[in-house]
Amino acid sequence: MTVTTDHPNVGTVHAMTDAVFSQDHDALAKIFTDDLVFHFRAPHPLNGDHQGLGGFLSVLGAIFEATSGQIELDTKFCLATDGWAAEFEHATLSRNGQTVPSQNAFVYRFEGDRIAEMWMYIGMMPDVAEAFFS
Questions:
Q1: Percentage of the chain surpassing pLDDT 70?
Q2: For a tag site, which of 24, 26, 56, 76 has the least CB within 10 Å?
């Protein structure tokens, strides 16, 4: 098995991130399978498993709403192999004059060239997250 940064799944992950930030729901519908399962693991009220594009968008929509879209991402790496991809990023979220860093990890399971399952782990201490999102 070869894991690489130039695998087509890396391009799909980057296209997904671009579509999220540009709010291109049509592109996201083509990137995710219809039965997407989104596993959101975070010290956040929406922590848990969410079904389909609607479930994914409800979680990210809540984060974008809370931050008024003030999210800066610095992707540290994205690697892929057939059927899988993994990504690590540093995010900076801003809200009401507060700024918090978060070290986030993602795992993607593919079916063909589409993301069928996604795990998103938010690396923020629970007390920091509670103060920030409340």
A1: 99
A2: 26
Burial 68-100 (b: 16+ CB within 10 A, else e): eeebeeeeeebbbeeebbbbbbebebeeeeeeb
One-letter amino acid for residue 68 of the chain: S
Beta bridge partners, 99, equal 94
How many Cβ atoms from other residues are within 10 Å of residue 108's Cβ?
23
Number of neighbouring beta carbons within 10 Å of residue 130:
13
3-state secondary structure of 24: coil
Cβ pair 73, 65 in contact under 8 A:
no
pTM tops 0.85 = yes
β partners of residue 98:
95
- Cα 43 from Cα 6, distance rounded (Å): 32
**29 C-beta neighbours (distance < 10 Å), count:** 15
Res 113: pLDDT: 96
Beta bridge partners of 107: 86, 119
